[in-house]
Amino acid sequence: MRQRRWLAVASETLLAGLLGVGFFASGRFFPVLGVVLSLLSPVPATILGLRHGRWSLLAAVGLSALALAALATPRYAVAFVLEFALPGLVLAELLRRKTRSEGVILGLAGLLTLGACGVLLLEPAARQHPLAQVEQHVLALVAETEQLVASLGLPGEGGTGASARSALASFLVMTFPGIFFAGSLLTAWGYVMLVGALIRRWPALVPGPAPEWWRWELPERLVWAFIGAGVLYLTGWPRLQAVGLNGLIVLLALYFLQGLSITAFVFKRYQVPRTLGALSVVLLLFQPLLALVVAGVGLFDVWFSFRRLSFPRSPGSS
């Protein structure tokens, strides 16, 4: 019996390692779908860690890194470890320790940001001129977006295309830190949602406490940081404006997640069909104004406490 268990653990470790390599490598072969699949790279290792512990997870990560180093280059192996393997390990550990959703998502977002910065520093040119590399990367993204719009037959910018592209690139370079961290927050939220859904759907196969992310609750004092960021943006000084704008982007992402948790709580309380919940998420992807409304709900929860009557607030909240 024990021998069969070891064989099962070994086979699952090998499978998780292969899936990690497959997801990570898919971004190089498929233009759009591959990017989405590559983001799933930490999930197999996280599930393996929840099932069999951190040593199996580390073994799967090691197999994936060795395979990438052998099939591609050691740089790809290091990038995989920094961007996906370490977040998967931390996610499994935080879920096992029943950490609150706020701590899981914020910790994971910080690790994702640090991992991406570490991958950027692998390039010698980036270590010497990091801001120039960021600007070049942003300009390349803007050019690729324009090519995609043109290939879809959508109307372009006409005669002002060059100036509009330059203004957009300048804005993206200035707000790159805030946008990048906000993207890391949403990515971390997606990981928590996906793993939590797997735990609830197959509790025997994916053991562990499912994060109750609808209980997400930011500190009330954080609203002063939001007000301070707004004041910095209104000063009119370019550097202070950049700091304030990046702060507003990050805080809006945090309050957006709080608004989502309130919405999910309302759906759960009143037993709204899951199809309607899924449709609401799709609307958020195509309606930016609706996303701002959700962020506003999260911000005004500081004063209205929409969930106060349903469960007790944390001791630090009034």
Describe what you observe in this structure.
The chain is an all-alpha fold. The protein folds into two domains: 1-128 and 180-208; 212-318, no CATH class. It contains 14 helices and no strands. Helix 4 (54-71) runs antiparallel to helix 5 (74-96). The relative contact order is 0.07. Mean pLDDT is 81; it is low at 312-318.
Order of helices and strands: HHHHHHHHHHHHHH
Q: What portion of the residues fall into strands of 2 or more residues?
A: under 5%
Number of domains: 2
Q: Work out the number of β strands.
A: 0
Q: What is the 3D form? A: globular
Terminal Cα span: 55 Å
Q: Give the proportion of residues in helices.
A: over 70%
Radius of gyration: 22 Å
The tally of helices reads 14
Structural class: mainly alpha
Q: Which stretches are poorly predicted, pLDDT < 50 over at least 5 residues?
A: 312-318
Largest pleated sheet: none
Keywords:
disordered C terminus, 2 domains, single chain, 318 residues
Map the helices and strands:
Blueprint: H1 2-26, H2 33-38, H3 42-52, H4 54-71, H5 74-96, H6 101-120, H7 124-128, H8 130-151, H9 161-174, H10 176-201, H11 222-234, H12 238-269, H13 274-286, H14 288-304
Helix pairs in contact: 1-3, 1-4, 3-4, 3-5, 4-5, 5-6, 6-10, 8-9, 10-12, 11-12, 12-14, 13-14
